[in-house]
Write a structure and sequence with these properties.
The structure holds two protein chains of two kinds. By secondary structure, chain A is mainly β. Chain A has one helix and 30 strands. In chain A, the strands form seven sheets. In chain A, strands 1, 2, 27, 28, 29 and 30 form a six-stranded antiparallel beta sheet that branches. Chain A has a four-stranded antiparallel beta sheet with strand order 3-4-5-6, with no helix packed on it. A four-stranded antiparallel beta sheet of chain A has the order 7-8-9-10, with no helix packed on it. Classes of the chains: A mainly beta, B alpha+beta.
């Protein structure tokens, strides 16, 4: 009888306890493999601490050097012609909004960095955050940089796309404005096409009606000469969100992701596919019908990467149809963007906050995600996790930042067996750029 | 004693204590479980285990979930805060105590915020006469960008900087703009998510007790 009671009660109770322990330990979706956690090295700060570095972006050059571009405060005088400053006397002191874009490289995997070079020589308010500068390289290792500056009247939302490239003499060419219609573009991205030419894309508002916010592209050759005029390939984009891009078929196929906003202010994410090297794009394919209806401005764009099998991996933030759905999501297309798998939540929102995400894909088809979320001290931190090539096995969620204020908008770069993540941290009026890296297991 | 697993309930009833002799009283009371109840218990446990195997089902996410903190809903007290304005003055709900307050969360980079600002400026120019106050709270922004914008848009009402997003999070703002109409007792009377319209502005002020 006693044995029977033990079996009847203790075994189920033990199972209950095991289940409870399992639930307590499981902070993330199914298929988590704790052994896949990454071992990150210590934090490094990039940039001059007293210049409030912000908005880092990482990319490897073809020779394996790691490059970072970010923004810093520009102490030079504010141009007196700027009409926005005539009301300066209404405030205690006018902090200069002028910022520079700087570029630095590391030849030893991020251990040491070259002195940062100023990319833009003019005095202008290089934008940061979601709208920060980006860099690309051609086969000759020449750096090409794009950034955004406010429009003539200082309006950040009616801005301009600027471009400069290394001049071969240790500096950069004078910046040129790429948008042919003034005060119309922001959120630029730049990619080197397999043919060596440059593809630049941005969100444009030269036409505000009837469909606001278009997706514009243009191509430059490796000397910075325009190969095309500005051309529109989409419309109805969410006005404040970064774009994502990936290539296939040696550049013949171009995939772009963005957040759309419809007439009812529903914001879903879409994939646009070009089969002719970015000249034209097919109708957008909805990645997930999240049904996020919001009339305000949650500026957090999606990210895309393509693996060697041709799978397209996409991550994005949405609040969905209720706050309980809010978080960072993932989906994959295994048919070249025709269809997407049902979304998977990578990390639920821990507070009412728009989160920022990024991803890169490794040579082994593993996907690396980075995003921001709120920690138990009500501070935004950067988190990381990976998805194995099997599409099921996730690494645990790892917090990689330890910001005293807030960390956000992580940038990722991956080369062979090392992953790099950089992010900006703000604490009050101070900001800095932080870099960490991890060696990847086999 | 009651054990609850999922929505299945299973009761274990203690039997009368037997063996009142020496030493027996220290033992656990014997428990009798009939076969039917054992089957129910195992069914419940296996169901829970089975559900656990389904991706995402029942798995807690990292940290507290959205919705745990009460939002400052219409009818509830506005959440107190303390921020600094662009000119360095400390400002909070207390500053406006006794007056209705229009509290607007915005950012310099935000399109819909810029769309509604002329209207807020208009409301601000009438606020003294009508006995209410307007406070702009800049979120996800920098002092420099906000100052530039305030100058550019010629804003005439005080602007506070929520540089660490603490007030934004307390008021559950996913993205600006958002406007709270708070009455003179500090009760939230209306909330507008997204850009303000003249109609919503009038309605909000009326609800906040502004007689115009």
């Amino acid at each position: 009888m006693k044995t029977q009671i033990r079996r009847s009660v203790l075994v189920p109770l033990a199972l209950c306890l095991a289940l409870a322990a399992y639930h307590a330990a499981a902070n993330d979706p199914a298929g988590t493999d704790a052994s896949k956690a990454l071992n990150f090295g210590p934090e490094q700060s990039l940039g001059r601490g007293n210049k409030n570095p912000a908005a880092p972006f990482l990319r490897f050059a073809p020779d394996g050097r790691l490059f970072a571009v970010w923004t810093e405060a520009d102490d030079r005088a504010v141009p007196p012609t700027n009409p926005a400053h005539q009301h300066e006397s209404t405030m205690r002191r006018m902090t200069s909004p002028m910022r520079i874009a700087v570029l630095a490289s590391s030849s030893d995997g991020g251990k040491s960095w070259s002195p940062a070079k100023q990319v833009n020589t003019g005095i202008e308010a290089v934008q940061a955050d979601e709208n920060g500068p980006k860099v690309a390289f051609n086969a000759d290792k020449k750096a090409f940089v794009v950034w955004s500056i406010p429009g003539e009247k200082g309006d950040i939302t009616r801005a301009n796309i600027r471009f400069a490239m290394e001049d071969g003499k240790g500096g950069f060419t004078p910046a040129q404005t790429l948008n042919e219609v003034k005060d119309a573009g922001r959120f630029p991205i730049i990619e080197t096409m397999p043919d060596g030419n440059l593809l630049i894309a941005w969100i444009d508002r030269r036409i505000d009606n009837p469909k606001p916010r278009q997706l514009y592209l243009m191509k430059l050759d490796s000397q910075g000469h325009a190969l095309t005029k500005n051309y529109q390939v989409g419309e109805g984009l969410c006005e404040c969100c970064k774009l994502g891009i990936a290539f296939a078929d040696n550049g013949k196929t171009v995939y772009m992701v963005d957040r759309e906003v419809d007439d009812n202010k529903v914001r879903n994410h879409v994939l646009r596919k070009s089969g002719d090297g970015g000249k034209t794009f097919a109708a957008p394919v909805e990645i997930s019908n999240d049904g996020w209806q919001v009339p305000s401005c949650p500026h957090s764009g999606p990210s895309i990467g393509r693996d060697k099998r041709g799978y397209l991996h996409v991550s994005w933030f949405t609040q969905g149809r209720s706050e309980s759905e809010a978080g960072i999501y993932y989906s994959v297309s295994k048919d070249g963007g025709k269809t997407f798998a049902p979304r998977t939540m990578i990390h639920a929102n821990t507070a009412p906050e728009t989160l920022y995400n990024n991803l890169v894909v490794g040579d082994d088809d593993r996907v690396y995600f980075a995003w921001s979320n709120i920690d138990s001290n009500n501070r935004a931190q950067v988190y990381i996790r990976t998805l194995a090539a099997d599409g099921r096995t996730w690494s645990p969620i790892q917090q990689v930042s330890n910001a005293k204020g807030n960390a956000g908008r992580p940038a990722l770069a991956l080369l062979k067996n090392r992953l790099y993540v950089a992010w900006p941290e703000t604490d009050g009026e101070q900001s800095r750029v932080v870099l960490r890296s991890a060696t990847l297991g086999k | 004693m009651k054990i609850t697993a999922s929505n299945c309930e299973f009761k274990i009833s203690p039997s009368p204590v037997s063996g009142e002799g020496k030493g027996e009283g220290l033992r656990e009371p014997p428990i009798r479980i009939d076969r039917r109840k054992r089957v129910i218990l195992w069914t419940c446990l296996l169901s829970v285990l089975g559900l656990s195997a389904i991706p995402g089902v029942g798995r807690p996410q990292n940290g507290p979930q959205v919705g745990q903190k009460p939002a400052p809903a219409v009818g509830s007290e506005a959440i107190p805060f303390e921020l600094k304005t662009l000119d360095g003055k400390v400002v909070g709900l207390e500053t406006f105590h006794g007056r209705p307050l229009v509290m607007n969360f915005f950012a310099s980079w935000c399109d819909p915020c810029r769309e509604e600002m002329p209207l807020l400026n208009q409301l601000a120019s009438k606020s003294n006469k009508d006995g209410y106050a307007i406070l702009g709270i800049a979120v996800e922004d920098t002092r420099a960008a906000v100052m530039q914008y305030v100058a550019e848009a010629k804003l005439v009402f005080p602007i506070a900087l929520d540089l660490n997003s603490t007030v934004k999070r307390a008021y559950r703002i996913f993205g600006p703009p958002a406007t709270f109409f708070i009455d003179s007792r500090g009760i939230v009377q209306d909330i507008v998510i997204g850009p303000m319209t003249p109609e919503r502005g009038r309605e909000g002020l009326k609800k906040a007790g502004v007689a115009r």
